[in-house]
Amino acid sequence: MAARRAARAVWPVVLLALCTPAASIQVSVGSDEGPASATASYAFDHPTDVLHGATSESLYVDDVDSSAMNLINGKARDDVRKAEEARKAAEAKKAEEAKKAEEARKAEESRKAAEAKKAEEARKAAEAKKAKDAKKAEEAKKAEDARRALEAEIKAAAADAQAKAKAEAAAQAEAASKAAADAAGRGAAAVGDPHLQNVHGERFDLLQSGKHVLVHIPRGELPEKALLRVEAEAHRLGGQCADMYFQELNITGAWVEAAKADGLSLVEAKQTSGLFFQARAGQHDDSHWLKLGRVELKVVHGRTEQGLLYLNFYVKHLGLSGFAVGGLLGEDDHTEAMTPSEACVERLSLIQSANGNDHRALASVAEASLD
C-alpha cells in the first residue's frame, strides 16, 4: 500500500521534472498508519533532448518502487500509441474522404460526359432527320413537278388530238357535202338545204342515226331536272346511205308537266310522262305551236314521194327562256353528229317549205331560233 502511495506521489514529480532542469527533489512518503513517516529523495536524469545544455547537477530519486515507474512508462507508451492510432485513423478517414470525393468527381465528370455525348448524338440525329426530310421534300417536289409537266403534256396532246379530230371531221363533212353536191348534179333524189339549224343560224346535216338531244334547258342540267328537253330518234330509210328522217320525238321537262296540269292533252302515245310523237302515227293537218314555259315549239308530220313517214321539229323564242340552251339546236357541239361514217359519205338533205309545213319534203327538218 505504501508503494502505491509513493507511486501516486511520484507522478506529479515526474511531470515537473520533465519541464524543469535536472534537480533533486525530496518527497514525503506516508504510510497506512498515518502521516508521512519518511522522506524519499528522487534524482531525475533528463533525456538527452531535455538535458541538452543542462548543468552538471544530478537528480536522484531514492527508494522508488520499480512497479510505479513501470506503470508510468506503460501509461506514457499507451498514450503515445493511442495518439498515433488516432492520428493514423484521422489520416485514414481523411484519405477515405478524399478518395470518395475523387470518386464522386470522376462520377460527375463521367455523368456530364455521358450527357454531353447524348446531347451530341441527339443533335446529330436531329440534323440527319432534318437533312432526310429536306431530301424527301425535294424529291416530292421534283416528283410533283414531273407529274404536272406530264399532265400538261397529256392535256396538250389531247387538245391537239381533239383539234385534229375536229379538223378531220370538218374535212370529212366538207367532202361529204361536195360528194352530195356532185350526186345532186347527177340527179340524186334528195336535194335542198341542210336539215338542221341551231340558235346561231348554223346549218348542218345530221349524218348519225340514233337518238339525239335537240334542245336541253338549262344547258348542262341533269335530264330529270331539266325545264325542257327534246330528244329525237333518227333513222336512214330506203337504203344504207339514204336520207335521214326523224321517226320519234320525246318532249319532257318541268314546263311540259306544268302545261299538262293546265289542260294540255296533246299526247299521241303514252310511252313517256311528257309529249311523245311518232312518224308512223300518220299525218295531221292541225299541227300548231305549243307554248311550254317561255318558248314555243311545233311538231309537223311529213311524207316523202315514196310514201315514207317522218317528223319535222321547230322551236322559237329560245332567247326568252332566261337560260343557256343546250342540244344540237342550242349551243352544244354538233361536229360528231354531222360526221358521216366511213361507209357512207353521201350528203343528206332536209328540205323545208316556205311556211315550215310542206308535207312533200324529201327529208326531215329541225330548226331553232332565239326570236
From TrEMBL:
Organism domain of life: Eukaryota
Segments for region (Disordered): 78-142
Signal peptide: 1-24
Keywords noted in UniProt: Signal
UniProt name for this protein: Uncharacterized protein
Species assigned in the record: Prorocentrum cordatum
